[in-house]
Write a structure and sequence with these properties.
Layout lengths: L1 H9 L4 H4 L1 H43 L17 H5 L8 H33 L6 H9 L6 H11 L6 H8 L14 H27 L3 H9 L4 H12 L1 H16 L3 H7 L10 H11 L3 H27 L3
Length: 321
């Protein structure tokens, strides 16, 4: 008994802590806490591998072949499909870079509007006034419509001969023969206008959520310091929206660069192929001309360009003033 008492005094740990089962139980709990988050990620990881990673690797493999999915033979050609995109004498050179130019024109015209206009709308809808919820729903409502609905609707509305827009212009005494979908620059005005009307609600909602996260105390401090509305916007609103702006800019650039449905349904690439975007040409090359290898190479080149633009955008937003 005396020896047991001496040992108990020498060991300051609780009796339960010194036992093997208690220590094993705590180890199991710690191990379970470490593995539980990964178990929740397993479903998403399986979906990512199945629908993103595997198709991406398979597409890269296709780009290295003369791939016609209707024929059994698909010879390996290495980098020939990529080299053809930079060879002025190849059959795809002019058409591909013309479609890239069309994509660039649409992106340059639409992205500034889709960044600035939704921000103005969000600033207005962030104020308290009667019917604010109704107007928020009105601005967001077009975004829930699919591109097929938007394309077919505006195809008829903007029709140069029978469209409602020209009929309305004629009714108020303005020229009623504007070629909204068949000539430049009207085709670009139509595509950009329809896209801005259709998608500005999404960016406005994102801005609105960011505005509501900015502490009101910062605006009160700016007023105490004598700052006006422009000073509040410049020194409080914009810095507070920096992460949101990064998301909106990146998402808008990627969405505009991958524009397909509007051009396919509204202008059908007209006049000529002036409004045929890169995605539209890639789809035609792969699905209509059965040149999947060349189409895959174009897709990866477009992906590389968008990756570089995204990295530059991230770099600009990380730069400190």
């Amino acid at each position: 008994m005396v020896e047991q008492s001496v040992h108990a005094l020498e060991d300051p740990r609780p009796a339960a802590a010194a036992t093997g089962p208690g220590r094993a139980r705590r180890t199991g709990v710690k191990r379970s806490a470490r593995t539980t988050p990964y178990l929740f990620l397993v479903p998403y990881f399986l979906l990512f591998v199945t629908f993103v990673l595997v198709p991406a690797v398979y597409g890269l493999w296709i780009s290295l072949h003369d791939w016609d999915y209707l024929l059994p033979g698909k010879p390996f050609v290495g980098l020939d499909n990529y080299q053809a995109l930079f060879d002025a004498n190849s059959a795809v050179f002019d058409f591909f870079w013309q479609s890239m130019q069309a994509t660039g024109i649409f992106t340059v015209l639409s992205v500034p509007l889709l960044i600035a206009v939704p921000l103005v709308i969000a600033l207005l809808l962030n104020r308290s006034f009667p019917g604010r919820t109704f107007f928020r729903a009105v601005y967001f409502a077009p975004y829930v419509l699919g591109v097929a609905v938007i394309g077919v609707l505006w195809r008829f509305v903007l029709d140069p001969n029978l469209g409602a827009v020209n009929a309305l212009l004629g009714a108020i005494g303005l020229p009623a023969d504007t070629p909204w979908t068949t000539d430049l620059p009207w085709a670009w005005i139509s595509l950009v206008g329809v896209t801005v009307w259709w998608t500005l609600g999404f960016n406005a909602v994102i801005y609105l959520a960011g505005l509501q996260d900015i502490p009101r105390e910062l605006y009160e401090a700016a007023r105490i310091d004598g700052g006006g509305k422009w000073a509040e916007f410049r020194h409080v609103t914009l810095p507070g929206l920096r992460p949101v702006l990064l998301f909106v800019v990146i998402n808008t650039i990627l969405a505009s660069s991958n524009m397909f449905g509007q051009a396919y349904l509204i202008t059908q690439g007209a006049p000529g192929v002036e409004t045929r975007t890169a995605i539209m040409y890639i789809a035609q090359t792969g699905l209509r001309d059965f040149k999947m290898g060349s189409a895959a190479a174009m897709s990866y080149l477009l992906t590389l360009v968008l990756l570089i633009i995204s990295m530059i955008t991230f770099r600009l937003f990380r730069t400190k003033d």
